[in-house]
DNA sequence: CTTGACCTTCCAGTAACTGGAAACACTAGA
DNA sequence: TCTAGTGTTTCCAGTTACTGGAAGGTCAAG
């Protein structure tokens, strides 16, 4: 399979597939006589795996780690669970942050009349918390 | 005020203050005879404003826009509200994404025994969804 | 043989900083 | 006054995970 075929099969842009090979996230593919990259089905499976893991927010380095576990027939499921749980905690933390952000900003937006006049609680609220009170 | 004083007052790293001046997000400060940057209170207020806006997730370019509105005594509050509401929508969207991510990953983690055996629904779930079966 | 799609490498740019090197400036103490 | 130590300057490079584009080689169809 040429690179565009494998990219299509894996649901990734051609550039990204090339990039993943370049950084050694997936093994360097064989080359045709004229230098074209030649991928096999195993490469497609790994690329799909990586795409999915990336969609889940795992970093490329975590993907590398997961891919190692994916390849290892003898790894324990505990190893995988540890990484996934860590990621789950990060997601939960991010959710909490977003929530307080949302609440605070929504509060400011609601307080703003949104008319032609210059008074604006949003601007005031962004600046005032620490040093702006006196302008 | 030298750069470290203003950075301390604004709650930003020195490097970041220099960076914000370099990209023209805040005006280029006056220089001492020996070339040291010399900031005033107005600069501190603007830097605090930017820091807060960044904490709210506004991009640097949005900060530039907000700072323009912040500086403009005659802008309407509607202008500000428009930007803030857009950001609020983005936050809400990000929250929805994170939620489905969380649910899906939590489901996989719960299904995993996390023991010494190699069977792992997380690994299987990451690889299987799209292309391994029939896509 | 030519056209057009596909492939190659390499360089640069994105966002928003951050780290580090080399050199100059300032301040306090001996 | 010299010196040590810290602060500041500029500039370059690296970060993350790609993405866009240029210049040029390859392949299949007509």
Please describe what this structure looks like.
The structure is a homodimer of 135-residue chains. With 135 residues, chain A is an all-alpha fold. The first copy, chain A, has a domain at 3-75: Multidrug-efflux Transporter Regulator, Chain: A, Domain 2, CATH 1.10.1660. Helix content of chain A is 64%, strand content 3%. Chain A is built from 6 helices and 2 strands, in the order ααββαααα. Chain A has helices at 3-10, 14-22, 41-55, 60-71, 77-111, 121-128, and strands at 30-31, 37-38. Chain A has a two-stranded antiparallel ribbon. Chain A is elongated and about 70 Å long. The relative contact order of chain A is 0.08. At the A-B interface, helix 3, helix 4, helix 5 and helix 6 of A face helix 3, helix 4, helix 5 and helix 6 of B. Chain B binds a DNA duplex (30 and 30 nucleotides) through residues 2-4, 13-16, 18-19, 23, 32, 34-37, 54, 59-61.
Instruction: Provide the CATH architecture of the domain at 3-75 in chain A.
Output: Orthogonal Bundle
Major sheet details of chain A: 2 strands, antiparallel
Strand element count of chain A: 2
**Would you state the CATH class of the domain at 3-75 in chain A?**
Mainly Alpha
Quaternary structure type? homodimer
The proportion of residues in beta strands of chain A is under 5%
Strand order of the largest sheet of chain A: 1-2
Quick recap:
The structure is a homodimer. Helix content of chain A is about 65%, strand content about 5%. With about 140 residues, chain A is an all-alpha fold.
Which terms summarize this structure?
homodimer, 135 residues, mainly alpha, Multidrug-efflux Transporter Regulator, Chain: A, Domain 2, two-stranded antiparallel ribbon, disordered C terminus, DNA-binding
